[in-house]
Amino acid sequence: MSVTGAATRVGMAPRAAGLTFETAQEHWRTEHRDVALGIPGLIGYVQNHAVLSDGVPLLPYPGFDMCAETEFADFETMRRGFASEHYRQTVRNDEQNLIDGNRFMLALTRRQVLVDGAPAEDAVKLITLLRTHPASTRERMIETLLGPYVEAASEARPQRHELLITQPEEHEPGLPPCCDAIDLLWFSSSDEALEALRSVLSDRAGWLLAGIAFGTERLLAKPIRQR
Questions:
Q1: Which of 33, 63, 172, 175 stands the most exposed, by the fewest C-beta atoms within 10 Å?
Q2: Is the pLDDT of residue 73 over 70?
């Protein structure tokens, strides 16, 4: 296992009223990408586009349409980037045509690599947002995710496995984190991811998190690295 020194911001938002899933994803992949790449200090930018079936997400709607990972050398550099004139003017102006900013969600995280594989170009990513159960603690949930859960999830044979651990102190005094951790599992196909979700991840791995994590949301996505 390894932890990257970089800071990763995961931003999630519903699409703006009047947009279809396909229209929103196309605008995000092209026009919005072009302006987002100009954020000062940005060293990594991944768009997680929902895998669609008949025009809607393959999994139940998770409460957002856009899910982006933006990476910076550290949180101070990240704060300067999102306080820049380019972000406040150019990027925010474009976001008004793309997302419902009133329902924007955020997690400021550090990335822990659990299975350091190289996903195939056409791999899909199963994203799970996890919140601590009221009867448990954040520390116990993270300990479980980094320990027995990793071993159990490995039975699904993911191409890669990462955990984004939310840093609550980095949110203060701004928008509170929407979750405590984000589990990222790569699979060769949507069918393989769904089979893992129905079996391994709902069996021993899911059982390990019972009473520790509660209120999970999931997205099956095609990750597109823009930088």
A1: 172
A2: yes
